[in-house]
Specification:
It contains 14 helices and nine strands. By secondary structure, the protein is α/β, with parallel strands linked by helices. β4, α6 and β5 form a beta-alpha-beta unit. α3 packs across α10 and α6 packs parallel to α8. The radius of gyration is 19 Å and the shape is globular. The two termini are 27 Å apart. The chain binds S-adenosyl-L-homocysteine (SAH). The site of S-adenosyl-L-homocysteine has 19 residues, from loops. S-adenosyl-L-homocysteine binds next to loops.
Length: 341
């Protein structure tokens, strides 16, 4: 196992069988190396992103997601332009220099480009990250020109058959990947990612994910455990494996030393120390919630999502002490990737 870790660190990719072997069991050396590499590139700094969940309307029906169009129990909301700008204002005061605007695919949100322009004008020293799903090349380009810098679009799974198990007809892995390549071509810092333990996922699917990531060379990768939501077709499926998620974070760090790698809310939902563990496994980003408290519980992607009751300032300070408690430091910075090659 030690030799596989060394090989991954050196070559940044492994064969299918090697990846499967490396992921199959506990391996302290893997975490040690991932942490060491992370320290070489980013020291003990943790970048912070302020997450603004601005709409939970969605036209899609992904089988895993709590805000899927078919969930009639979801209470829908859409933040106004003024509300979004208020979140940014508060976030800026709290030291956030990246705003992540995430939402369902909400076609009724027509003034979104204007909102991006407003944020860009008001906060020239901040990064704007968008996470609003699959859009046309032209839409992505317009958003980039309006001032957005980064785009998160998890590919969800790089295995075609598995993709079809997670999504209804009309959605395709091909289009998802096309979107990611388009975003990259336009000039966004791109983030892909996947859920660990989504229904139907095999180790081969995970290796497909790692190979796709190796091919795409994204600036960021968001991974977190799948967690069932009670109003979805996957309500009776079991959650993803916590330890496997940590191992994957470490593997990703070794595959791409400068990667922006969040310790996600889903990881924190599965285990009270999840985000700390995620950082110790090689992560370097946390994403405290900046959404207004009254909408938090409506952006329920999965059951028991944490931090739905706390004010932004509480989330900010909670994250600070969590990171300090493990020897890391949350920094006031845009947090761009450090180019090492
Ligand atoms: N509409 C946007 C944002 C989706 S929500 C988009 O398509 O990119 C952000 C991420 O939450 C998804 O990409 C998915 O990977 C994750 N997610 C959704 N449902 C989940 C669940 N039940 N468990 C864990 N993660 C989930």
């Amino acid at each position: 196992m030690k030799s596989l870790v060394d090989k991954l660190e050196k070559e940044r990719i492994l064969s299918r069988d090697e990846f499967k072997q490396l992921l199959s069991e506990k391996n302290e050396y893997l975490f040690e190396r991932a942490r060491a590499v992370r320290h070489e590139v980013y020291g003990n700094e943790v970048f912070m992103r302020g997450l603004i969940e601005f709409t939970n309307y969605c036209k899609n029906n992904c089988y895993y997601c709590g805000i899927r169009a078919g969930n009639k129990n979801a209470q829908r909301y859409r933040l106004s332009r003024a509300q979004i700008l208020e979140c940014c204002e508060l976030g800026y005061e709290l030291g956030f220099r990246t705003f992540v605007l995430q939402g369902g695919e909400d076609p009724a949100y027509t003034d979104f480009v204007e909102i991006v322009k407003d944020i860009r004008t008001a906060y020239p020293d901040c990064a704007i990250t968008l996470s609003i799903g699959e859009q046309s090349y032209e839409t992505y380009k317009t958003l980039f020109e309006a001032g957005a810098n980064r785009y998160l679009l998890r590919h969800e799974t790089a295995n075609d058959a598995h993709y079809k198990q997670l999504h209804p007809e009309g959605m395709s892995l091909e289009n998802r990947k096309k979107c990611l390549w388009n975003l990259k071509e336009i000039g966004f810092q791109v983030g892909c990612g996947f859920m660990v333990g989504s229904p139907g996922q095999t180790m081969d699917c995970i290796v497909d994910d790692l190979r796709f990531i190796h091919e795409l060379q994204p600036a960021m990768v968001g991974i977190g455990p799948f967690i069932p939501h009670k109003d979805t077709p996957f309500k009776d499926c079991k959650a993803g494996d916590f330890q496997l998620t940590l191992r994957l974070l470490a593997v990703l760090r070794l595959m791409k030393p400068d990667l922006l790698l969040p310790a996600t809310t889903a990881l924190g939902t599965l285990d009270p120390q999840g985000r700390e563990q995620g950082i110790l496994a090689g992560g370097n980003v946390v994403m405290p919630n900046l959404s207004p408290v009254d909408v938090r519980s409506k952006y329920m992607l999965y059951d028991n999502k944490i931090c739905t009751g706390d004010e932004a300032a509480e989330c900010r300070s909670c994250m600070q002490w969590r990171m300090v408690s493990i020897g890391y430091d949350v920094v006031i910075s845009k947090g761009d990737p450090i180019c090492i090659m």
